[in-house]
Amino acid sequence: MRKKIVPRKTKKPAKTPRKSGGSKPTLWDQASRWYDSLVGMSGSDYHQTIVMPGVFKMLELKPGRRVLDLACGQGVFSRFLLGKKIKPEGLDSSEELLRMARVRSGKSVLYHLGDAGDSKLLNGRQFDGIACLLAVQNMEKVEPVFQNVSRWLKPKGKFVMVLTHPCFRIPRQSHWGWDEEKKIEYRRVDRYANEMKVPILTPPFVDKLNFTMTYHRPLQSYFSTLHKAGLCVDSLEEWMSNKESEPGKRSRGENRARKEVPLFMAIRSVRTQ
Fold first, then answer.
1. Quick one: which of 116, 125, 123, 122 has its CA closest to 147?
2. Is residue 124 part of a domain?
3. Which residues contact 247 (CB under 8 A, 6 or more apart)?
4. Does residue 197 sit in helix, strand or coil?
5. Do the domain assignments include residue 185?
6. What is the mean pLDDT of residues 174-184?
7. Apex CA 88: angle with CA 84 and CA 91, to 5°?
8. Which of 36, 52, 231, 253 is 20 to 30 A away from residue 159, measured at CA?
9. What average pLDDT score do residues 10-22 get?
10. Is 96 helix (H, G, I), strand (E, B) or coil?
11. The CATH number of the domain where 103 resides is what?
């Protein structure tokens, strides 16, 4: 029987690119309530069960160490770190998300407003570790960001970034397919090696056809850019989804696919300079 591929349907949004940086309003400011409703005080299920525990483990920090929560949003990971007796600070370009972070964290966390690529930020502060959770792929230029990460880290400090897996989770260029003959679900990838930017419709803008932007990069791009910034990759982990399908004729194949195709990738690098 011929394999049937059913791609996801996507709408073509108007070309209104996201601008970020400093106190200038961004689309993330306008989408902040929607995003906050997804993540909340303690994070989504993925945050709580996979991403935050995994990042904390990879940072390998003792209580009392200082960590920068890069692109912190409304401060979910910063609050997680507080519970681990770590001293966090947050940095984000969205003033509205930082307002939510300050309301929920009180005076326990110092939050900074600005673009992660701005070398003038943080007044010479240095940290034992830096973490960036599911945000690097929303950054148009990672070169200045990684240069700043190297500058903000103490010698031998660790930088951990988590991405939706750049090999298997490429927006509009990868999707699930079902092999009816073998009764298995598989992942199809149409593009990978070339960098690309992909507009993503983000509530509350779906009807207005505005969007945020996702930037796909192959692994070699991340590794080479980290290296040029004086950051040496010493660990890489791939994390699977913990979801399970409702009982049905495809559930076994879907659950097997989730255990074989990673959802997230975590890359740890160490400052070498």
1. 116
2. yes
3. none
4. strand
5. yes
6. 96
7. 145
8. 36
9. 37
10. helix
11. 3.40.50.150
